[in-house]
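Weekly sync notes, structure subgroup
Attendees: PM, AL, DS (notes)

Item 1: joint prediction request from the bench team. They want all six components modeled as one assembly rather than separately. Inputs as received:
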Amino acid sequence: MARPEVSAEQKQVKREAILKVALEVFAEKGYHATGIADIASRLEAGHGTIYRYFKNKLDIFLTLYESLNAEFLAVAWGTRPDLAETREEYIAVMHKFCIDFSQIFLREINRIRIFFEEVYADPEIRKSFEAAQAEFLDTTIRFLTIGREKGFVRPELHIPSTARLMNAMVFDTMRAGTEPESASSNILLLATTLIDLFARGAMPQLK
Amino acid sequence: MARPEVSAEQKQVKREAILKVALEVFAEKGYHATGIADIASRLEAGHGTIYRYFKNKLDIFLTLYESLNAEFLAVAWGTRPDLAETREEYIAVMHKFCIDFSQIFLREINRIRIFFEEVYADPEIRKSFEAAQAEFLDTTIRFLTIGREKGFVRPELHIPSTARLMNAMVFDTMRAGTEPESASSNILLLATTLIDLFARGAMPQLK
Amino acid sequence: MARPEVSAEQKQVKREAILKVALEVFAEKGYHATGIADIASRLEAGHGTIYRYFKNKLDIFLTLYESLNAEFLAVAWGTRPDLAETREEYIAVMHKFCIDFSQIFLREINRIRIFFEEVYADPEIRKSFEAAQAEFLDTTIRFLTIGREKGFVRPELHIPSTARLMNAMVFDTMRAGTEPESASSNILLLATTLIDLFARGAMPQLK
Amino acid sequence: MARPEVSAEQKQVKREAILKVALEVFAEKGYHATGIADIASRLEAGHGTIYRYFKNKLDIFLTLYESLNAEFLAVAWGTRPDLAETREEYIAVMHKFCIDFSQIFLREINRIRIFFEEVYADPEIRKSFEAAQAEFLDTTIRFLTIGREKGFVRPELHIPSTARLMNAMVFDTMRAGTEPESASSNILLLATTLIDLFARGAMPQLK
DNA sequence: AATGAATGAGCGTTCATTCAT
DNA sequence: TATGAATGAACGCTCATTCAT
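Output from the run, pasted for the record:
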């Protein structure tokens, strides 16, 4: 009984070691330019070894890709706009979401890089990306719908479009974090601005 | 003297013929999956011929890519927020920009597709994309800066961040137009919502 | 003293277990398409284990192959044309040989399949096949030589050639038994016809 | 008009050059042990070149294989037992068939070698072999049926079985020709014996 | 100018075998 | 004794690019 557990555990350890170096190489060179040989040699292992743990190159990539999607989605579905009783609380929910997202970013900058850069490298990756995007859209739609019910969102706003635009801003904020530093790519500043735009728009209020 | 001119002109005609079919194939299959042979055979020409007009596959792609960027940038630099005298005119400038952008889209859906999907297919493409994005950012910064000077933009807004977020929304609106139709991917609806968010935010105004 | 015996016995039991499943897999997939992993997994053992009992894949195959040859040869050497006193008894010897061969077939269809199909899969197998064929030829030559001495075989017949042709018919009859059923592949009918051709030829006798 | 013809002709010349060396290598090393690289290097060409003329390794092999089948079948269908008016003429038809077959053999010993040795190297080859065998059987059945109608074949003989056994002898005679010389592998002697067995059987006629 | 035949580096992947545990 | 993780040589094949015609 103990034995298979150890074996399975060791297998998992090795899988994760492969994922770790694969992520590094994918982030450095991109999906297409990365060869199994690159991953194997950085792992200081034979390239046959990798095929003991993953079906093929795509399998490795999708594993990395989907685990990131899962983390993002967990944060997104974890927001609780339903608990917000006031306008300020509603904004605070959004704020918390941005903070949580940022934390994943800080931890997972390489995975975020491949998340954005390799969307179209393979039809399977694209499918995975699109499935995740659709689900993200659902979470944002939920956020807005609850907000409207509670009177925190202007009722005349078209929710699906708004959700899509907000997601575009959120993901671009993440993407900014993967870029070499510049004034415009400060992730926190972008998040603050995003919330400000959401709350008040860009134009002064007419009296 | 006449001869070389004709020759150069003919050369240009052929170049454009190649670009035309290359665009089709790139849009259908993507950069990596497209072979020179695919382009040549659809052109009904030998593949050696293509190398007389372009250095290599990347050269063809970048030519297409950069001409699209140039068109987009021409529209962006052509906006005249400086001529807006009223809040409504300022919004109208933005509206016109969206309309003009949409028109490029309607005409150039294939180029827009490759614009979005092949950003990271090659480091050169990426560089080109990033250069264009930086310039787009400049046009939006100009738009916002002029708006602020004229009192149409809230002075406390951080302009570079706002510009980046607006661009994210604009490009995502374009991208939506390349996707199979769905409620959320209506390009005009997205543009209208974008302007609405810009003008008023998503939340009701406090009295 | 007892111990090594038991060990050797156990070793033999395991060897036979390996041969049993190996035969199944070889028959199903063929020599080249069969991997050590296929055999090991059907055996529910590690693939390293197999190398404790056999030198390599070829060793397993040849063991199976040669044991079948040995069985066939035992039957062939077991014919007793020397005991035949009459033409009818001589034919009966041949008949018995066909029946005995068929029984091996009924029992060992899988080994017969690999016997025919994998002759050239490896030079070693080929060598084994050819050695067996040469020995089969000897048995048939013996059968015919004795027959001639006893006046049951036409003296003008070239015995080595006749032996070879008869063997060709015998093995093709066996091979027919491994094929999906059809009118022409009825093993008993073929054997009967073979004997009939041997005894009387295909043409009517001239008066 | 002249141009494409020349081009197609050159293409054919090259195809045949490839087939020529491929046949040599296949005959020497066998299908599985032959690599595209082996063929290419003997051709003194890059291995990519081969893929301009053939889809893959199997394509080359099947081309060789099927052209041999076609030659054999042409000979088989070219026999004219229907023209035989006497027993001797009927035997002469068979004799001619053997001679013609032998001539292909003398010309095509390498193709005959692969014909026999690589039957099961790939399912496609096997399919091709079996289709050819079935057609050969038809030609022999035709030969025997016409013989029976004309009174040259004993009416009680089971024709499909007889046809199958005769084919086994014919092909084994061919196979003998591919083997290192021995008393039993004299192709003409085998053919003569085959006809003798066909005509008179192996046993003395009862008075 | 136009061609397309030739090239070969490079890819992802398989699997028989070894050997430390 | 039994294991299965590790290995890496070797495979078939693709395709961007060159260059002789």
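Discussion: Chain A has two domains: 1-54, 57-200.
Action: AL to compare against the crosslinking data before next sync.
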